[in-house]
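Subject: Rv2578c family radical SAM protein

B.,
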Amino acid sequence: MRWAGQQLEDDGALPGMPALKGLVRSVQTPEFAGITFHEVRARSVLNRVPGGSPMPFSWTVNPYRGCSHACTYCTVGSTPILRADGGSVPMSDLQVGDAVVGTVVEGGVRRLVRTHVLAHWSSRRPVVRVRLADGTAVVVGVDHRLLTRTGWRHVARAAADGHGGTWMVPGDVLLGAETLPAPGLAGVRDELDESRGADRTLVAVEPMGEETVYDVTTTTGDYVAEGLVHHNCFARNTHTYLDLDAGADFDRQVVVKLNAPEVLAREVRSARWTREHVAMGTNTDPYQRAEGRYRLMPGIIRALGTSGTPLSILTKGTLLARDLPDIVAAGRDVPVGVGVSLALLDPDLHRSVEPGTPTPRARLDLVRRISDAGLPVGVFVAPVLPGLTDSDEALDALLGEIAAAGAAGASVLALHLRPGTREWFHGWLAREHPSLLDRYAELYRRGAYVQKAYRDDLARRVAVLLRRHGLDGGGHHMGGRLDGGRGVREDNPEPWPDGALPRVPTRLVEEAPAEQLSLL
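Prediction pasted inline below.
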C-alpha cells in the first residue's frame, strides 16, 4: 500500500488511541509491518530535559516519538489483580495510585513487594486464552508476557518474533506467585497460600478473537493476577512528559513531527533562545529506519547550525552517513559532537544480542566516514557484557579497530540491567549462556548497576587500553563535570568520550548568562 494513499478518516479518530493534536494522517506500509506512523504538525520541537536529570545537556530534539520495538502487555477487564492488602480488584477498575503486588529481584531472588499504578488505559486488540493444568485460565493480548521458570515469555510466537524474545509452548511451567517470598505482605501471603501445590504447566494458548483489554504501568514493571506474574510496560509513563500519553500512543505507534525542521528553525530564531547545546538521539534514535522515508534530520541540522546552536547526535544508525555534508556544514558555524555506539566485534554474538541493528563492521565504517569528513566522533563501547566481551583481548581488539577508524575518544560502559531489560537479558542468558547466570546474579545483586569492584577492575584495565590506542580523551560525566572533568560519580561513573559532545569555546562560556554555566 502506497504512503500517498494512506489518509486519515475525516473525524480524526484513530483505532485504539485518542486523537493527536495536529494530526495530518496515519500511515501503514508493508515496509514497516505492524507499525503505524502518525504524521503530525507540531507546535514545538525543543524539549527541556526534566529537572534532576544527570545528562550533560538541558535540551533535546526528537523528531520521532515512540519505538518500533515497543511491546504491549494487556489483560481483559475482568482479570482479578492482587492488591497489596491481600484483596483483589478487576483490571478494568484499577486507578492511578492504587497499591497492588509486583516483584523485585534482589540477591538473585525474586520476591513479592508493594507496587503502585502509575498509568492505566484500554484498547481493543486480538486476545488469546492461556490455560494451565490446574484449571487456571487468563485471557490476555497476543503481545502479553508471563513469568515462567526460565524467565519472561510471550504468549504468542508472532509477538516474540517481532520483539526479539521467546514464546511459551505447551509443557512450559509458569512461575506461580505462591512460590515467592512476600515479607511484610501478610494478607497477600494468606491469599496466595490457597494455591500452593497448583500445577502451573501450560496446556494450551487458544485464539479468542478481539476484546477490549487494559494495561497499566507499575513502579516495578509487573503485577500479579490469577496467581501469575504479568509483565507490563514499565517505560510508558516516561512518555507522559514527552508529549505522548501512556497508552496506545507508545506501542507500535510512531509519531512523526513532519514540520520539525520548520518549527525548530522558528524556535531557535527567537530572541529568548540562548543557544544552549541541543542533543539528539538520547531518547529515540533520530536515524531509525523511518528517517530514510521522512528525511527530517537535514533540516533540523541546518536549523541548529545556522542559528549558532551547538548540537550533538548519538546513533546506532548508519543512515547518518547520508547527512554528513549537512553536519560538516553545521560544524563550520557551531561546535558539533557525534557519538556512535558499538559494543563488540563478534558477528555471531552481535546477531544474538543485538538483532536488527547495523553490524559492527557497518558501524566502524560509519565512524571512519565521519572522521574522514573532518568531524569529531566519540564511540560508546556499550554495553560491556561480563564474561562475554570484557576480556583484555576482546576490548583491545575492539578499541584498536575504533582507533583505526579515526575516533577522537571512546568510553567503555558496563551493562546496566534496569527493570524490563533485566528480565529480557536474563532470559537470553539462560538460553545462550546458562553457565553465567550465577555470576550475573552476584554482579547485579544490588540493582541495575554492576558491583563497584567489577567497575573498578574494568576501569583499571580499560584505562591502559584507552591510552594505548589514544582514545582516553573525555571527562563529561553523567552528572556534570566533576573534579575538573576527571572526577567519578559513584552511581554512574562512565565519562562521555571526546567527540560525542560539542566542545563549546571558552569565549561562549564566559559570555553565557550565569544560569547556563553549569551546562557549558
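The first strand starts at residue 23 and ends at 27.

T.
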